[in-house]
Every structure is written in C-alpha cells, then in structure tokens.
Amino acid sequence: MARLVIVSNRVPSPREVTQAAGGLTVGLADAIRGQPSLWFGWSGGTDGVDGTDPAPGITVQDNVTYATIPLSERQLKGFYQGFSNGILWPVCHYRVGLMNYSRDELETYLEVNRLYARALAPLLQPDDTIWVQDYQLFPLGEALRAEGVNARIGFFLHIPFPPEQLFRAMPGADLLLRDLAAYDLIGVQTEQDAGNLRGALRAVGVERPVGAFPIGIDPESFARQAARGENTREMGRFLDALGGRSLILGVDRLDYSKGIPERFRGFDRLLKRFPEHRNKVSFLQIAPVSRGDVAEYQALRRELDELAGRINGEWAEIDWLPLRYITRPISRKVLASVHRHAQIGLVTPLRDGMNLVAKEYVAAQNPADPGVLILSRFAGAAPELGDALLVNPLDPDEIAEALDQALRMGRDERVTRWTGMNTAIHAATAASWAADFLRALGETPDPRGAVA
Ligand code: ADP
Ligand code: G6P
C-alpha cells in the first residue's frame, strides 16, 4: 500500500494521535489510520546547531513513523517567531500593518524549509504521497523538488489567503507564490480563499489547481467527551460557582486574530445597554497563551489584562464576577463539558481560516436544549454555519445586541438553528476533509508521467 507522508511544523506526539485530540490532528489521524504513514516536522527543540544538518529523531508507533528534527535558536527565531508568525501570519489575516518585515527572517524561513527538505528527502520511498501543511511551509514543495523528489506533493493552507494586492504587499510574496508551482494540488478552507489565491497565482503567471476543502471536526467523539465530562468534580465546582447564571463562553488561543478585546468590549456594552442581564450572566474566556515570544502577542496580553480588570472593576458586585479570564490551558474533557453548559458560544475572530471551536461548540450541545452560537462573519466556518447569529466582530454594539437576542431566544428557535448547524458539522468532518483532499490529489496528473 502506498505510504502517506504528512509534513507539518508541529508534529503531534503518538499519544495525541491515538487520542485524536485537536482538529488538524483528528483529520490527519483519520487519514493515516490503517495505512503506513510518515509524519515529519520540528521536534519542538532548539538543540540544532547552525551549519550542521541534524539527524532526524525517529519514533514508530502502530503504522506511523514520526520523524522530527530540532532547530537552532537562531533558526527558530527567524523562521518561526520571525517570518512565519511576525510576517506571514498577520498578512494572511489581513493585518499588513502588524507585519514586522525583515529580509533576514525571510532568508531564515527559506533556509529552514530547505533544511526540512534535506532531512526528509532521504526518508522518502518511490510510491509515497506527500501532504504539506500550512503557512510555515509554503516553499517546502519546491525545496523537495530541488532534492530530486518527484512524487505527488499536495499543500493545504489552514489559515486565510487574503486578496492578491494585500498578500503581494509583503516583500517575498512573489517568491512564495512561484514556489507553490511545485505542488500538484493546493487546498484552502473556503471558496473566498480559493478565489484570492487563484488571483495571486495568476498575477505571477503560475497555473496550479486550487480547491476549497473546509476542515471539520469529529462531532461524535466531541459530543461524547462533552457528555462524559459532565459528572467530573471540576464541573461540579464550576457549576456551583456559576450559581445558575447564564454562561457565555469564549475559547481561543491568545491571538490578535481572534478578536478577544473587541469581544470583551461587546460584553461591556451588553452590561451597559441591557441592565436586565446584570448579575444574570457570566462570561468565561479561556485563552491559553500562544507565541508568547512575538511582540504583538505580548501587547495583546497586556491589553486584555487591563480590559478584564476594568470591566470587572466597573460591573462586579460583592456576589458576582462578570468576567472570568483564564490563560492557562484546561483539559479537553472539561473543555467539552464547559461548552455543553454554555448558553452562548461567542466566537468572534476578526479573520480565521476555519475556526474549529465554533464547530466544537455545536457538537457539544444537548440536542433537547441547545445553546446559541454567535459567530463572526469573517470566520471560515461562517458559510457552513449560517444558522448561527452572524456578527461583524468589529462592532461591540452588534455583539451586545446578538448577546441580548441569544439570551432571550426561546427553545424552538434554538433547536431549529442548532439542527441546521449540527447537520453542517456532520456533512463535512475531519475525516471527510482529509479523504476529499487526498482523493483529489490522487486524481492530479502523475508528476513522474510528466517527467518521462
Ligand atoms: P486555531 O487553529 O487558530 O488555534 P481553531 O479554533 O481552528 O483555532 O482550533 C483550535 C483548537 O484548539 C480547537 O480544537 C480547540 O478545542 C483547541 N483549544 C483551544 N483552546 C484550548 C484550551 N484552552 N484547552 C484545550 N484545547 C484548546
Ligand atoms: C494554527 C495554525 C497551525 C499552528 C497552530 C498553533 O492552528 O494554523 O499551523 O500549529 O495555530 O500555533 P503554534 O504557533 O503554537 O504552532
């Protein structure tokens, strides 16, 4: 059987794959189940030495080989904190103004992609199909071709692709676009991303197939987790603390693309404009720290600390804390149950590739008495989840009005809306995402045929 090779900057541990935790992992774990696979990427370590190619660390579990290499401190800084997360990430999320461009970091990004290619090429077998994941690895396909790899190589971009003019404002953009020519198929999350990417490729004269393959979750397993976590001691303590108030829930990595300050302001506006909800609601925001070495993320953290303090200072009463803001990660089981108990899932990214949290919120609901999803129009999930209350996340008043509408919504309307969304998350799952992409990749002309 042909082997599937997955390349992603972060490689899950074998335990994470077995438990099929996060969205990307679930999708890919399903794809590799029952077929021999190799998963390649960064070890998470910085014990690499500049100028020396590290030997991959190899672990084998079941039918999957995990091969990872470390980076040097300098490489991590330039490639990961620098170009990937200080330049490409803001630009792809339509925030050119947040980009801190440096030619050095672009060069380190290209260098690390070549390093990955050199380490991966010797591990490949002739019949492999290679699937490269996400923005950290735009040039990897081209770097693999330079190493003589002529297998089919697919690429999937998990984050948005902005309009051509915006993307090409970034120095180095044309180079990355031309490198995409090395892939046999390029997948993105939505039709909008696909249109934008096609426009950008056309502008630099590259013709490659681009398709929209929206990623999903494993709704059944998440629903099971949500129901199972209900009777834990932690949930009991949490429900006691809630004291019967309606729960509004936000769950995101601490990232400026998620619109968390705007959401806090929306909640503040709710309390100001709709006094009947004071002391009747509790907003829980879970936002584990992410990319804490990047300046913009540090600034966001300071902003949120201040905002949370101000909101609680203004509205809290002796027996009521309006906003609970947690930056520590919490276990998935408890997280799923907290979703189930939330009357409102508040998901308001300013821009998001997909947003799996929105789909997880839907999956976790009790079908007989579901909560309401308030979702940003700018999340990749919005076209599929049209039964949510869709909002412009930049308008705190719109968020406040949607919160008020959701808090007053009757059960019949909640059930109707939830049923529509639940159908959508079952129609496109993590497993169908991977299967659809790999099928389409398998149908592209064989690059070896083209060479002969
Ligand atoms: P992104 O990929 O930008 O982080 P997504 O919403 O698409 O955003 O995916 C985030 C994933 O991480 C979801 O599966 C979500 O459940 C998980 N996650 C987010 N916050 C936490 C947390 N505090 N603890 C555990 N898992 C989390
Ligand atoms: C998003 C990106 C992934 C990335 C993840 C966590 O989901 O699309 O590529 O791995 O965020 O970010 P981190 O920088 O911690 O890998």
Features:
452 residues, alpha/beta, Rossmann fold, eight-stranded mixed sheet, six-stranded parallel sheet, 14 strands, 46% helix, binds adenosine-5'-diphosphate, binds 6-O-phosphono-alpha-D-glucopyranose, Glyco_trans_20, Trehalose-6-phosphate synthase
Quick recap:
This is Trehalose-6-phosphate synthase. The protein is an alpha/beta fold and 452 residues long.
| Spatial order of the strands forming the largest sheet | 3-4-2-1-5-6-7-8
User: What low-confidence regions span 5 or more consecutive residues with pLDDT below 50?
Assistant: none
* Top CATH class of the largest domain: Alpha Beta
Q: Would you tell me the overall average pLDDT?
A: 94
Instruction: State the total count of DSSP E strands.
Output: 14
Q: Write out the CATH superfamily name of the largest domain.
A: Glycogen Phosphorylase B
Classify the helix fraction into a percent range: 40-55%
Quote the beta fraction: 15-25%
Q: How would you sum up the global shape? A: globular
Bound ligands, each once: adenosine-5'-diphosphate, 6-O-phosphono-alpha-D-glucopyranose
Number of helices: 18
What class do helices, strands and sheet pairing give? alpha/beta
CATH architecture of the largest domain: 3-Layer(aba) Sandwich
| Biggest sheet overview | 8 strands, mixed
Distance between the termini: 23 Å
